[in-house]
């Protein structure tokens, strides 16, 4: 764990997202579960609709999906009335076992992440995770990840704080639990716009991950099989989305993070702050 007495010109804590950033290449688990959930209610949901609010607390994710105009109209047509808060709660309660059932199939650590963790520890940097998953989901994923060499120093789930992303509370809880401050000694890493906003709202450096996450949404093998020109185009779109969300840097994969820490620390030494 990083010491609270470490000079504030050093990065002392990195807070990673889970799906699409450190595990589950392409963030496949949540997207599929949401599509299946709405199908049970007679609604046809595209993967793009399921992915649009990704990174939020899963209850908030459902509410955001239902608030989208096309899905709101489809709900009214199929269900005979506008959706209500009670509908959101019912959907969320049904989503939990759906997500739990599929998570073991999507808990592979993304290549390079375990080595990234080792490199951060060599620098004396603590590592934590935040997520839109609840505690039970998080424990399942981290249990599987531990066997593959990814064991963070701490983790906070969306149901353990007053509000999930883009609120900063999960990052603050990580900082508190690991005794790390000020916020500019922290880097938040994630694959969605709300991940980036979570870091910014916490006053931390915020780094986006473009290739392995939700904005591409493909398995490693499917991604590699695309023609190079198509990969380049999709990657540029994902990078632009994360940059527009306010990311201080955008990487293809979380494994690249150690290479940019020296630059962030140089910026701190010059007096820059996130």
How is the topology of this model organized?
Layout lengths: L12 E4 L11 H13 L6 H5 L6 H10 L1 H11 L5 H18 L10 H10 L3 E5 L4 H12 L7 E3 L12 H10 L7 E5 L2 H9 L3 E5 L10 H6 L2 H17 L4 E3 L6 H12 L5
Parallel strand pairs: 1-2, 1-4, 2-3, 4-5, 5-6
Helix pairs in contact: 1-5, 3-5
Description:
Strands 3-2-1-4-5-6 form a 6-stranded parallel sheet, sandwiched between helices. It has 12 helices and 6 strands. Helix 7 links the parallel strand 2 (126-130) and strand 3 (154-156). It has helices at residues 28-40, 47-51, 58-67, 69-79, 85-102, 113-122, 135-146, 169-178, 193-201, 220-225, 228-244, 258-269, and strands spanning 13-16, 126-130, 154-156, 186-190, 205-209, 249-251. It has 274 residues and is an alpha/beta fold.
């Amino acid at each position: 764990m990083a010491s609270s007495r470490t000079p504030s010109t050093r990065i002392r804590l990195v807070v990673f997202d889970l799906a699409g950033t450190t595990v589950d290449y392409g963030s496949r688990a949540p997207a599929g579960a949401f599509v299946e959930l709405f199908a049970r209610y007679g609604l046809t949901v595209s993967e793009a609709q399921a992915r649009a609010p990704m990174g939020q607390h899963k209850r908030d994710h459902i509410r955001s999906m239902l608030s989208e105009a096309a899905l709101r109209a489809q709900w009214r047509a199929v269900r005979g009335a506008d959706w209500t808060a009670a509908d959101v709660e019912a959907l969320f309660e049904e989503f939990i076992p759906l997500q739990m059932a599929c998570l073991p199939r999507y808990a592979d650590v993304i290549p390079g992440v375990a080595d990234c963790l080792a490199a951060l520890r060599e620098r004396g940097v603590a590592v934590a995770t935040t997520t839109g998953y609840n505690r039970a989901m998080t424990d399942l994923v981290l249990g599987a990840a531990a066997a593959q060499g990814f064991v963070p120093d701490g983790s906070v789930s969306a149901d353990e704080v007053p509000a999930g992303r883009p609120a900063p509370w999960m990052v603050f809880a990580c900082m508190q639990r690991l005794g790390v401050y000020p916020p500019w000694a922290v880097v938040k890493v994630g694959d969605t716009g709300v991940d980036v906003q979570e870091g910014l709202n916490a006053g931390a450096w915020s780094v986006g991950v473009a290739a392995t996450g939700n904005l591409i949404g493909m398995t490693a093998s499917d991604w590699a099989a695309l023609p190079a020109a198509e990969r380049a185009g999709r990657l540029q779109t994902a990078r632009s989305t994360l940059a527009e969300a306010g990311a201080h840097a955008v990487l293809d994969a979380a494994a690249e993070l150690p290479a940019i820490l020296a630059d962030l620390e140089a910026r701190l030494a010059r007096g820059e702050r996130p």
